[in-house]
User: Fold this.
Amino acid sequence: MQIYKRLFLVALFFLSSLPVMAWAANDDGSVKDPTKTAQEFMAKGIESARSGQIDQARTAFENATRIAPELAPMAWAGLGMALGGQGRWLEAVVEFKKVVALQPADMRAHFNLANAYLSAGERDQAIGEYRNMIELDSKLDWAHFNLASLYLQKEETSSAIEEFEKAAELNPALPASYEKLGVLYDQVGMTEKAIAAYEKAIELAPLNGTTQYNLGVVYLKNGDVFKGEAAYRKAIELMPNNAEAYNNIGTIYLSRQDPQGAIPFFLKSVELKPDLEQGLINLSVSYRDIKDFESALLYAQKAKDIGINRAQVLIESIQRKMAENQGVKDASPAQ
Assistant:
């Protein structure tokens, strides 16, 4: 899943001037600032967290927050990140929930909790936190994008489309939103909207070969063979190892009744991906149609050898064509 923003790294900087909670005396009788002690405990907590000593970090943070409660959000966020760094995401969730309870309007707190939920495999809870973020600020394009990505994981297509559309509306310069919308519109049969989304994505990121390829697919679905071929050729320029693009150009040649022109593209497709089912089958069909039966059988057999069920039917059709062709030759008058 593509996530627009990553986990916030909450900086554990100390406040230069904390409210005075109480005054005590040092051993020499001088006045001692308790906030300095709190900072010392925080420093110890940070050091322990960074070295993976979770229990020591927790103790130090607890001591710091007893002296200066206002440090609690920073302390529990730091502990949550340390736990996450060890893959202990369910425990991290507990700490990030404390931060959210203390700072319910802090976007970073909700974001860290959402990502902890996601890392712990609690996707529905992560969705809930993104909803909370959007309630706090409905204009966060990245929150809508990430929420859409989570809906996409759940195969909730209509909700994903709604959120990607919102992300695109809020940030029209983000190509990823249009790329995702192109895929989803295509899936639900909204071909014209898929084309428009892919074209916008390419306008913003013209060097994205995958988007060019996907645009070729929807052009062909929409019956625009000329634009489809152009998009596939552009995809090949950007991604020379895209076997599927070569295969699809070959199928365009076949649709024009030009198997000879199709063959170089199918050959390239199976060179790049020897087990590409469509490439092997199409190559065999093309050779059959130009009556190169030996080559046709060769690639049909390769398809059969890798377990392509329809290869046997193709082999039989080639053998019939061979017999028919031989019959025609036998019936021809001798010169």
Q: What stands out?
A: The chain is about 70% helix and 0% strand. Confidence is low (pLDDT under 50) at residues 3-32. The longest strand covers residues 24-25.
